[in-house]
Specification:
mainly beta, Immunoglobulin-like, Lipocalin, Jelly Rolls, 3 domains, ten-stranded antiparallel β-sheet, six-stranded mixed β-sheet, about 10% helix, disordered N terminus
Amino acid sequence: MKKIFFILLGVLCLQLFLVSCQEDEAMLDTASAPVEDDAVFTYSSTERSANVLKFSNTSNVLFKRWNFGNGKTGEGNEPVTEYPLKGSYKVTLTVYTAGGSATTTQTIEIAEDDPTLLDLPIYNIITGGKDEPQGKTWVIDSKTLGHMAVGNGSSLEIYWPAPPDIKSETGLYDDKYTFALQGFKYTQQTNGDVYIDNLQVPKFPGAYLNKDDYTAPFTAPDNLTWTLTESDGKQFITINGNGFIGFYTGVSTYEILTATSELLHLRYLDAGDPGLAWYLRLVPEGYTPPAEEPEEPEEPETPEYKIEDISEDFEGEPTVNFVNDSQGSIVAYDNPAPVPINISAKVGKYVKASGNAGEFANVQIPLDYKMDIRNRHIFKLKVFIPSYNDYTTEGGESWQSYKTLQKQVSVKLQNSDLGGNAYTTQAEVIQNNLQTDKWLELTFDFSAFSSRTDFDKVVIQIGGEAIFTGGIFFIDDFELLPE
C-alpha cells in the first residue's frame, strides 16, 4: 500500500513540474524581442505650423527612443518637434523590450522654410527677428577707427586699421546690407558702385583707381540669399549668389567675431592673397552711439602731449633710441669725410638692404608721448651720400629713376595708433636731388602739420621708398630745433 502511495505522489510531482515549465515558457514568450511592426510610426502637422510635426507610435513596449533628424531626440508615444528649414529629414524610432529592440526609419519632406521658428539669438540679432519681416539693414561704421582693417590671414594680428572716414567717396560708405528671416533674403544696395581690392578688378569692367584700391560700377541682383553655418565653434555668414558685404576681396563667407544688436564685427579672407585677412564693422542703419556722460575729473586734466629735446650726434652714449625697420639699420661709425661742415669723429652709418627686403627700409625713433609741435616743428640733419650708391643710366630710364631716388632723404612723423607706415597716418618732408660725396646740412620744416599733437614716432628714410638697390649712407647731428 505504501509503495502505491509513493508512486502516485511521484506522478503528481511530475505533473506539477510540467505545468511549471509550460508557465515559464509562456512568460518567456511575453518577453520576446519586438518585431519591426512595433516600431512603425505616423506623423502629422499641427495647427501651429506645417513645420511643427506630431509623431505617434501606439505599440505596447517598455521604452521608445526618437531621433528626429533635426539634431533633436525625444521619448514617449506622441512627441512633437520643429523643422524651421525646408529639406529632407531622416526620422528613426527604436523600441525596446526586455527581449531586445526594433528600429524603423522614415524620410520626411519639409516643403517650405518657416523662419518664425528660428527664435534664436544670433538670427534675431542679424535680422531683427520675426517682428521685423522686412529684415534688418546694416551699414559700415565709418566713424570708428578700424571699421575696415587688414591683417594676417592665419592669425588675428592687425596690420592696418582704417582711420575714420578714410574711404569716403569710394562707394563703400553709402552701401547697405539687409538680412531678412523670411526666405533668408539678402539685399545689397550699392547705389551704383562698390569698393574692391585691386586683384578683383578683372571681374568689374569700368573699375578705376580710388584711394589705393578701386571703385567699380556694380548693381547687385535681386535674388540673393544668406545662410548661417557653424564650424569648429565659429559662426559664419555666407552670401549666396553674386553678392557680398563691404570691401570685396573675392570671397562671400564671413566669420562672425562679434554679434550684438548694435555691432556685427566680421573677418574674411582675401581670394587673391591668402596671407591676408580683412575686417568690417557693421552697425544698424541710423544707429547713433549713446552719448557718454563726461566724468568729472578728481584733478585738473593735463594735456596728453608735450615736447622734449630730440638730438643725436653719435658721440659717446646714445641720446635717442633708434629702432631698425624693414631692413634699415644705423650704428655709430668713423666719419668717412671729416671736412668742414662736419668734422665730428663719429657719425651714424645708415645701411639700406638691397632687394625686396629693403624696399621700405628706415630707422625710427619711438616716443613714449605725443608730440606738441605747435611751436617746435623744424628738424635739422647732416647727410653724406656716397656716389658709389648711384647707378649709371645703362639700362634705360628706370635706372635714371633709381639714381634720383637714391639722392633722397625723408623725415616722417607718425601716429602709431593709426596704423604704422600707412601714408594717411603720417606727415612727411622730403629733400630730393641731393649732392653726393659731401656733407649737407638739411632742414625739415613741419609747420604745415603744426596743428597736430598726435605724433609719437620720428622716421628717417634715405634712398627713397620702393627702391630695391640698397645703399650705405651717413648722417649726423639730428636735432629738433628750439623755438
